[in-house]
Structure formats: structure tokens, C-alpha cells
Write a structure and sequence with these properties.
By secondary structure, this protein is an alpha+beta fold. It has one domain. Strands 1-2 form a two-stranded antiparallel ribbon. Helix 1 packs antiparallel against helix 3.
Length: about 60
């Protein structure tokens, strides 16, 4: 079961001033990045980790 509504323990502030509170917020942030940035290895890993966090045990 995928749960994108799971909240972070503490809100995450982005460099552009946004506040990410849930996995969905973070996923939408990554998806809004320019394709060239999304293709960078660090962002690819972040996307995988978000997906795992939404799909797997909350202890992920």
C-alpha cells in the first residue's frame, strides 16, 4: 500500500523557501524540478527513497 500522506517528523525547508511536510509534498517538489536536475544521481536517489518510504514499512 502506498501512503504518500505520511508526514515527516519535522517539516523540511527547501532552499527556495517552501516547506515540505509530507512524502507527497516532497515528491511533488522533485517532480517540479527541471528534467536536467531530476536526472542528477542525487535527485534520482531521493526519488527512489521517497518511493520506498511511501510503499514500505514506516521504519524505512
Amino acid at each position: 500500500m502506498t501512503d504518500w500522506s505520511r508526514r515527516f517528523n519535522a517539516p523540511v525547508k527547501t532552499p527556495d523557501g517552501k516547506t515540505l511536510r509530507t512524502l507527497k509534498d516532497a515528491a511533488e517538489y522533485v517532480l517540479a524540478l527541471p528534467p536536467k536536475v531530476q536526472a542528477e544521481p542525487a535527485w534520482q536517489r531521493a526519488a527512489r527513497e521517497l518511493k520506498n518510504a511511501a510503499e514500505l514499512d514506516p521504519a524505512w
